[in-house]
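Slide 14.
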Amino acid sequence: MKSLAIEREFGSGGREIGMKVAKAAGIPYYDGELLVKAAESYGLSVAMLKEYDEKRTGSFLFDIASFADAYQQRPGKKSVPELLYTIQKTIENIEMQGPAVFIGRCSTEILKKNPHVTSAYIYSSDEAKKLRRIVETEDVANEAEARRLMDKMDKQRRLSFKYWSQKNWSDRANYDMELNTGTLSIEKCVDILLAAIGK
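Slide 15: predicted structure.
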């Protein structure tokens, strides 16, 4: 069975899909856990890194780069490339331990050359559906707030991906497959991805 790496538009349901694939396949799921592993290997406090988690601004790598820019002049602090390298090695080492599901964190690029990894881009052509999902799952009061949050998160994911890979985040050529939750149900996407990773 292969690992799965997912990039996703905010509100597309990509996180939910990844979690359901991991549960159905009986393999680990990595999102916020990467923060802990990266912090331990890098030697920074977990609490400090969690301040820059995706829940706050939408892109771990983009924010961790900003964080490192601010702190790299302090004695003993690593540079941005060194910190990003640590995150890359963390993801690669986790995958070497066995199949897993990775959400975001540029894992699709980090693991791109690994033949044991399938990459997917999850998006939705139905904007109204995305906005409804955001209202239902995030701490927003209405669709206007949901739209602002969606635009912010997608912008930061795009910047993070560009920073890491020098590529366009939404370019479908970066991925093995793309799934449109505007026309496919969450359950159908899960089934497709389970088949793709050989489960």
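Speaker note: Residues 52-58, 70-74 have pLDDT under 50 and may be disordered.
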